[in-house]
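User:
Hi there, any thoughts?
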Amino acid sequence: MQYDPIKKMLGRVFNTTPFLRRLFYRLLDLLLLRTWHVRRELKKWNRDHSTNGHILDAGSGFGQYSFFMAKKFRNKTIEGIDVKQEQIDDCNQFFAQSGLANATFFYGDLTEYQKPSAYTLILSVDVMEHIEEDVKVFKNFYQSLKAHGMLLISTPSDQGGSDVHPHQKDEEDKNASFIDEHVRDGYSLTEIREKLKRAGFTKIQARYQYGAPGKISWKLSMKIPILLINASKIFFIVLPFYYLITFPFCMILNFLDVRMNHKSGTGLIVKAWK
């Protein structure tokens, strides 16, 4: 399924006014389980790094993580990089309107971008599953981090992370990703550790997210709405009523997923230090 057209459509709707964009960020914060995990890790990191710092949001997208960091980490400088110029322009305009001068956005390709020893933290959320040359990107991250700097990654796992199931329409497509733009369905813990070591990282921590509660939350909060919108734009009218019913259940499931240790899960949270 093509996910990018839906994201573009949502971007056009919520970019109408700064209020709607802030509302969009708030909805993403609440509904996307990965945001719960990422924000929790960012808060932990900031408690140990209270001084000034330089952060790269690698694959900044709509800018929701940069927005969180720019507001909460006022003494930090955030740079967002992305390959979609439209989103870069939208973010720069919105952040200027919001008075957040500590965050700027620019166009760049992560397979080529390197800024030696520049960043205290590099954040990469839902990015690596879109890039074929992942080790090259990891090497660029390593070179761009300061000594003892940290890389924080959120990405699908190989335990069904791209919602791969053998129920597709024919044998040829049976292992197709739910989201067509992914170049890989997900990483195993061993694979991503080995690739990060090849890039130079020696201290690596990786754990599962989207365990049993998270899988249910994903289906309720994201998969079903995406399928409905993909089928017909008329379902935009239905979605508010759908979320009125499912929202409380999703919040409980997200809360449980963040606080549980999962033996398996469809997502990974990975931290690596230079």
Summary: The longest helix spans residues 235-259. The chain has one domain: 4-273. The two ends are 37 Å apart (CA to CA).
